[in-house]
Fold this sequence. Notes:
Layout: H1 4-16, H2 19-26, H3 30-44, E1 49-51, E2 56-58, H4 60-87, E3 92-98, H5 106-117, E4 121-127, H6 130-138, E5 144-149, E6 162-176, E7 186-188, E8 196-199, H7 209-217, E9 222-226, H8 230-238, E10 243-247, E11 257-263, E12 268-275, H9 282-306
Parallel strand pairs: 3-4, 3-5, 7-11, 8-9, 8-10
Antiparallel strand pairs: 1-2, 5-12, 6-10, 6-11, 6-12
Helix pairs in contact: 1-2, 1-3, 1-4, 2-3, 5-9
Protein name: LysR family transcriptional regulator
GO molecular function, one term: DNA-binding transcription factor activity
Family: Belongs to the LysR transcriptional regulatory family.
Amino acid sequence: MLNSARLLVLLEIARTGTIVAAAQALHLSPSAVSHQLARLEQELAVALVERQPQSLRLTAAGERLAEHAQAVADLMAVARDDLLAHSEGGAGVLRLGFFASSGLELLPRALSVFAAERPKVEVELILGQPHELVPDLEAGRLDAAVVFEHPLDPWCRQAAVDVEMFFDEPQLVVLPLRHRLGRRTAVRLAALEGESWIGTHGGHTGEPVLERACAAEGFRPRVRCRSDHYQVTINLARAGMGIALVPALGLGDATGVHVCRLDHPRLHRRIGVATRPTNRNPLLRIFLAELRSAAEEIRSLLEVQWS
């Protein structure tokens, strides 16, 4: 196999025309350059230079090999620059998982600055629930996952995953405009006994948190319909089909309905990010800084709006 260092010696001889000049350019001794050239000719069993009194001239075989040596040098430079860009976070691939309502405001805020400053970075986005994303994170198919956790429905955290929580997201009650509680700013769950609900499907346990919370209050909610698309639940509430429980990040178009905060100590979501502690992707550290900044902005907005 050809030695790349010897090819670079030949390339420098082709550029400078002498052993001494090539040695100076390569920061080697002239004897070292002569030795590398001789070894290269021995390996190939072909003369690569014609030795003249004051200089060297490449043979036809030497000229062909010098062309290949230039291609090798160019490829090595590209590889060096590419790895440098990766190590500095200027290029590479970042694979992120996220749940749907984080994609409305939180994730776009974090990615807008990140992507604008790193146009050569490829960002892959995977939508899913936390219990679906964490196995991919553990297996190395994701670099990070934006996640939530209900106090009433915690998902199992494996030892291989670190979770950093950013803020608690309030749950909101969406009511038709003419509802009997339509003027309140906050409502207790017990006051909603007997209502028709537009509910959601359960998480990894299969039992929705609404049913768990209502059971603790001593009643079972009457669920007319279930959808994990929060705009669907809002639209159905607007049509008078029932009331809905919607997390603050999932509140989209709320015209034509009344929205108030649910006063309950355990009906909220904790929003955060899950990562793999062994992950050495330099892009991850940069993205996490942007995500923390975006999360703090969202936390402040929610605090002002729903405290």
